Amino acid sequence: MDSVKVRKKDGETVIQLLRSLNLLNTTYKIKQAGDFLILPLINSSEISAVLEDKELQYTFIDTDFELSDTRNRSLKEILSQVIPQDLLQYVPRSYDIVGSVIIIDLDDNILDHKFDIGLALQTIHPDIQTVYLKSEGVKGKFRLRTLELISGVDEPLTVDREFSLNIVVNVQTCYFSPRLSTEHRRVAEECTTSESILDMFSGVGPFSLHLASMYKNNVTAIDHNPKAIKCLKISITRNKLRGQIDAICMNAEEILTLNRLFDTIIMNHPSDSNRYLKVADSVLKLGGVIYYYTFVPVEDYELKAKEEFLSSLSNYSILYVHRVRQYSPSELHVVVKARKR
Ligand SMILES: C[S@@+](CC[C@H](N)C(=O)[O-])C[C@H]1O[C@@H](n2cnc3c(N)ncnc32)[C@H](O)[C@@H]1O
Predict the structure, then answer these.
(1) 143 backbone φψ class: left, alpha, beta (φ>0; ψ -120 to 50)
(2) Residue 235 structural domain
C-alpha cells in the first residue's frame, strides 16, 4: 500500500497536513520504525509538493498495514473513504444516542449517502442496533420527530441510561432528548425530600425518575401522550426508587381534577408552557416554586424570559433564569425558576 515515511519529530505536523487534505488512510494503523513513522495514504500524488513546501523530509514506500480500530475514528474519517471529498463538510459532528438507537439529522446535500452514513455510525458504535434519520424537527401535540430507518433493525423501543437510571423510551412515539440529562439531574438536586412535586409535561418521565430515585417523596407525572405514560410505568418497575411516582395520562388543562396542591411544579414544554401557567398557579401552594421552560431569542434572554413569565403571573418572585442549551442559531432553551408570593 502507498505510504510515506517521515521523521518522528515531524510526525504530528505531517499527520495534521494529511488529515486536512483528506490524504491519510485512517482505515489502517500508523507504523513506527525506529525514529520514523510510516503513514498509510489514500493518494500519494499530491503529497510531494505539500511536504516539500514545508521543507519536511520524506520517502515514499510500499508496505502492509494492520487495520485500525474503527471505534476510535470519527464519522468524517470513515466517510472520507466512501463519499465524495467535497461533501465531507456536510457530515454532522453530533447526533443523539438514546439507548441502542442513534438519531441523526442530515444536510440535504448528503441525503443521497444516508445509508453509507448509517452503516458508518454502526461501525463506530458496535452496540447500536438502529440508526434513524430525523426528517424534521419535533412537532405536533406529542412533540415527536419523523424518523426514517437508515441502518440496522427497525426497533424504536429502547432503554436509555441517564445517571444510572434506566429510562424506557419509544423514540418513535414519545418525546425524549438525551441532551437534557444534566438539566433533569440539576433540577432534581435542587428539590428536597419533603416536597410534593408535579411533573406537568412528563413525557417518559426523566425528571420524575431522577426525583424518585433521590428522595422519598411523592411525584405526580402527567402527560397526554398515553405511550409516554406507558414507557414511564415500565421505567418505574425497572429502577430502584425511594419515592413514589403516580404516572397519569391526562391533559394539563385538567389538573384541577387531581384535587390537590403541590410544592413544586416542573413545566418542561418550552414551545407552549405559557398557555398553562395560570392553571399551574391554581394548584401551587403559597411559597411554592415553578420551573418554567421556554424558548427565547438569544439577545437579552434573561429579561425576555422574566417578562414572559411575569406577564402571566405577576405575584411571583423570579429566583433565576438558567440557560439550558442553544435550541437554534437564534434561540435558547431556558428555565425560569419563580416563587409564588
Ligand atoms: C418537550 S416534552 C418534555 C418531556 C419531558 N419533560 C422531558 O424532559 O423529557 C413535552 C411533553 O409535553 C406533553 N404535552 C404537551 N401538551 C400537553 C398537555 N396539554 N397536557 C399534557 N401533556 C402535554 C407532550 O406529549 C410531551 O411529552
Answers:
(1) left
(2) 177-340
